[in-house]
From TrEMBL:
Superkingdom as given in the UniProt entry: Bacteria
Name of the protein in its database record: DUF5009 domain-containing protein
Organism of derivation: Thalassotalea eurytherma
Keywords, comma-separated and alphabetical: Membrane, Transmembrane, Transmembrane helix
Cleaved signal peptide residues: none
Primary gene name: nagX
Listed transmembrane segments: 21-42, 62-82, 103-121, 133-153, 160-184, 217-238, 247-269, 275-298, 307-328, 348-370
Amino acid sequence: MAINKPQKVLPKRIASIDALRGFDMIWILGAQGIFLALFSLTSWPLFNTLNAQMLHSPWHGITAYDVIFPLFIFLSGMSLGLSAKPLSAYDADKQSQLIRKPIKRLLILCLLGVVYNHGWGQGMPTDIEQVRFASVLARIGIAGFIATLIVWYCQHKLQYTLFIGLLLGYYVLLEFVSIGGFGAGNYTSTGALNIWFDQHLLPGATYQNALVDPEGVLSNIGSVTNALAGLFVGRYFIHQFKSNRPIILPLSIIGVICLCLGYGLSAVMPINKTLWTSTFALVTIGYSVLLLVMFYWLIDVLNFKRLALFFTVIGMNAIVVYLASSIVDWQYIANSLFGGVVAGSPSQWQGVVSVFCLVFVQWLCLYFLYKRNIFIKI
């Protein structure tokens, strides 16, 4: 006689996902400065090495700071995989409501991205040609929008085929296609195919007036694969969880395979964040999966709830965190509240104390929203 195990009920929110999103965003709050401050305090080479990881790679290669953005897109895709169904599964009225939502979200994120680009006390230029329309928020919106359409209208097998097709197709495009003297295997900052697309199809200005924008037109292809990978992992996560099957080991193997593929193929196609090459996508997917495994093990398995709370407070209002980093002078607020504490600290410790005060002020504001169940989502 076969005895079926009772099926687990997936919680409304998986604590480790919100916590990982918060961990991802804390480096945007200013925590990335802690390693430089610790190096100034101790002169230990380890902290200098870690501080170098808190900077974007100059062109080819990857640092820890380069993983922040792809991880956020991956987690957005995972949220989609945990909840989304084919559009045909809904009645006609519900379909009409659902279709409007991702379009509205895409437009709002694009608009907020322009606001973010021209924050930092500068304001938006009056000359439309000086406005930077490409942005991190717009890329999040585009990747999420395309992933949503794929979930709605494509069967699972086709979704996997599209994922592989995007990775391979993007490689073929950059490696073999030449337009206007750009491309055909040229991955430099002056000759990549992406430059032609950004110069001819991207309105307004590019980031720092460079030839190619890090959130430009063509590189959206690579970022969509990060969203799709998150979608697949989210769906797999549900299946394994409800079937009482192991999650940690299979996902760890998937993460390692992606890293091996990304690094292994980097001799053919360089790992490059600005171009968001297929190898960059694979490597960042690998790191994203392994970080998810680590947080799931710590928080949902070992039940480290205090760790979860600290990061969840940030992760539940991630868009607010990012947008506020451009339009709010957090350093001024931190100095106004804790400037005396910093000044009263031993001189060698002032840099470290200053970083903690900066992050703490922002965390307190987010905790205020969290305690009142105010979660701003788009």
